Amino acid sequence: MAYPLVTGRLSIAPLAEEDAAAFARYRQQPEVARYQSWSTAFSEADAARLIAARPPGDLPGPGEWLQLGVRVRGGVQLLGDVAVHCVAEQPDTFELGVTFAGEHQGRGYATEALLAVLGGLFTEHGAHRVIARCDARNDAIAAVLRKGGLRKESREIEADWFKGEWTTLDTYALLAREWAPRATAT
Ligand SMILES: CC(C)(COP(=O)(O)OP(=O)(O)OC[C@H]1O[C@@H](n2cnc3c(N)ncnc32)[C@H](O)[C@@H]1OP(=O)(O)O)[C@@H](O)C(=O)NCCC(=O)NCCS
């Protein structure tokens, strides 16, 4: 994808070294970490390591993750990120995760950023299928994924031992042939 991806309100580009403090700060928020793989102990040093390990291209290679930072256009403050994972087991298949700082939620930014990244993956990169996996209790991401056009495809009941309890995982998905009519309709 050519960065920054620009939407009506947002600018989206890979996280850089100087984003480490802001990235760590919102990952430490309990409501942000609740259903995510990290804990509130995620430090600025953890953030710096993750950012430094960024894959070199404009998309992750098989098995890799790339964190795209989201800002208001023309702004410097980091609002959140869209994480892009290239699924190693299948060609042209990507997984996304969306995270916004608590104070920047509830404004439609997450949905706007998700739609931009979906557009880049399907239109510029010929993605075949994009998925997202989430805790079944995470209503906020479920709403964002549905607004992005993803379908709930499966539910794995109490399949994941996560943060001290068995949790149920939902998988959402969208195919290129489902995205194309949406893209031309807007
Ligand atoms: C998941 C997450 C990113 C969703 O963020 P969000 O801000 O709730 O999502 P949206 O961008 O859709 O914004 C939601 C609300 O903003 C409001 N809003 C305000 N101004 C708006 C605008 N200009 N345009 C659109 N919506 C707007 C709407 O009410 C919308 O809710 P509605 O569509 O139900 O009416 C956020 O809850 C989060 O970061 N959670 C923690 C991390 C996490 O668990 N991520 C999932 C990992 S897969």
Walk me through the structure.
It holds the Pfam family Acetyltransf_3. Keywords: Transferase. GO terms for molecular function: acyltransferase activity, transferring groups other than amino-acyl groups. This is N-acetyltransferase. This protein has 186 residues and is of the alpha+beta class. The protein has one domain (5-185): 3-Layer(aba) Sandwich (Aminopeptidase). 30% of the residues lie in helices and 32% in strands. It has 6 helices and 8 strands. The protein has helices at 20-27, 30-33, 44-52, 109-124, 139-147, 176-185, and strands at 5-6, 10-14, 65-72, 80-86, 93-100, 129-135, 151-162, 165-175. β1 and β2 form a beta hairpin. The mean pLDDT is 96. Coenzyme A binds next to β5, α4, β6 and α5.
